[in-house]
Amino acid sequence: MSKRKETVKRVIDGDTFITALRSHPVRLANVDAPEKGTKSGDAATKALKAMIQGQKVEVHTVARDKYYRAVANVKIDGKSVNRSMNQKLKK
Predict the structure, then answer these.
(1) What is the number of other CB atoms lying within 10 angstroms of the CB of residue 68?
(2) Architecture of the structural domain at 3-90
(3) Pairing mode, strands 70-76 and 79-80
(4) Every domain of the chain and the residues it spans
(5) What is the pTM of this model?
(6) Which of 6, 11, 37, 75 is 20 to 30 A away from residue 20, measured at CA?
(7) Partners of 10 in the beta sheet?
């Protein structure tokens, strides 16, 4: 589907964020972060914020979910955010 560079405005949780260009959030494809409000969920949110908050990311939309969020493979400086988050979640 689409691919474009966008600035991350706000991280919602460990696998979802909002960009300046979109009205709906972006969800990282194939990343299943723990729920917000749990200890591990808060750690995942913090990790994603540290990685992408305020940064320009490349969003490769691959699908839409039932909430009309873009489900995407995301890169920052050519590095996969999806892969990085999955590695952090396995620790």
Answers:
(1) 9
(2) Beta Barrel (2.40)
(3) antiparallel
(4) 3-90
(5) 0.92
(6) 37
(7) 18
pLDDT tens-place string over residues 2-11: 577 999 999 9
- Token pair, residue 88, equals 């952090």
Q: Note whether 69 and 27 are within 8 A (CB).
A: yes
Contact between 65 and 12 (Cβ < 8 Å): no
Query: Tell me, what amino acid is at 53?
Result: Q
Token pair, residue 80, equals: 């996969």
Look up residue 78 and give its amino acid. Answer: G
For the residues of 20-67, what is the DSSP string, one character each?
Answer: TT-SS-EEETT--PPPTTSHHHHHHHHHHHHHHTT-EEEEEEEEE-TT
